[in-house]
Amino acid sequence: MIPATEATPYRSASPIIRLVGIEKTYFRGDEAVKVLDKLSIDIPAGSYEALMGPSGSGKSTLLNLIAGLDRPPRDPSRSPGIASIA
Questions:
Q1: Residue 73 · residue 25 · CB < 8 Å
Q2: In a domain, 53, yes or no
């Protein structure tokens, strides 16, 4: 397996997608459901990735954040999460 930091003709050493400290919480009535909790991930260019998990684990939420269809919440008391696509 090629380390994510090693560049190859098909894979860049720098990430094409970077998420840092992403948090997302939904509310079901008065109950808070945290689906993403300080998620950080780098996805290098040319890689193939799969998202797997049970229903309600945050897969669609994560894809919506990456695609720009949703934004990480901004909390003025802490630094906001960062989602970037190169």
A1: yes
A2: yes
For 28, the domain range is 15-85
Q: DSSP label at 5?
A: T
Write down the pLDDT at residue 78. Answer: 45
33-84 pLDDT per residue, tens: 888 998 898 998 888 999 999 998 899 999 998 888 888 766 544 444 555 5
From CA 21, how far away is CA 36, in angstroms rounded? 9
Instruction: Output the DSSP codes for 29-70.
Output: TTEEEEEEEEEEEEEETT--------TTSSHHHHHHHHHTSS
Q: Which two tokens stand for residue 26?
A: 């939904």
Domains identified in the chain, total number:
1
Residue 8 resides in a domain: no
